[in-house]
Amino acid sequence: MIRSQDGKQLAGCYKAVSSRISCLKKSADMIPQYALYGVDSQSFWGKSRILLGYYSDANSIREEINQILLAIEDGMVS
């Protein structure tokens, strides 16, 4: 179970995916470069995703995914 970015949803996600959302250079500090999504289901229409957060760089998103993996390994259910 993962909580959405706004804290209003709790989803049972079976995978996390990231995508680059901005093609602007890193000098634009106020604009997030990446988004992380949790995938909670798939249907004929595609994957159902829940936004988990915005990140300024690829290293930050890797760290978040590592934290999720560590929580799973430690047996945390949410």
Q: Topology of this structure?
A:
Layout: E1 2-3, E2 10-11, E3 15-20, E4 34-43, E5 46-55, H1 58-73
Antiparallel strand pairs: 1-2, 3-4, 4-5
Describe the structure.
This protein starts with a strand and ends in a 5-residue tail after the last helix. A hairpin with a 6-residue loop joins strand 1 (2-3) and strand 2. It has one helix spanning 58-73, and strands at 2-3, 10-11, 15-20, 34-43, 46-55. The protein is an alpha+beta fold and 78 residues long. The strands form 2 sheets. It has a 3-stranded antiparallel sheet with strand order 3-4-5. It has a two-stranded antiparallel ribbon with strand order 1-2. The relative contact order is 0.23. The protein has one domain (2-73).
The number of distinct helices, counting runs of at least 4 residues, comes to 1
Category from helices, strands and their pairing: alpha+beta
How many β-strand runs?
5
What is the helix content?
A: 10-25%
Count of structural domains: 1
What ranges have pLDDT less than 50 throughout 5 or more consecutive residues?
Answer: none
Radius of gyration based on Cα positions: 13 Å
How large a portion of the residues is in β-strands, by DSSP E? 35-45%
Q: What's the mean pLDDT score?
A: 84
Shape: globular
Q: Describe the biggest sheet?
A: 3 strands, antiparallel
Amino- and carboxy-terminal Cα gap: 4 Å
Secondary-structure element series: EEEEEH
Strand order of the largest sheet: 3-4-5
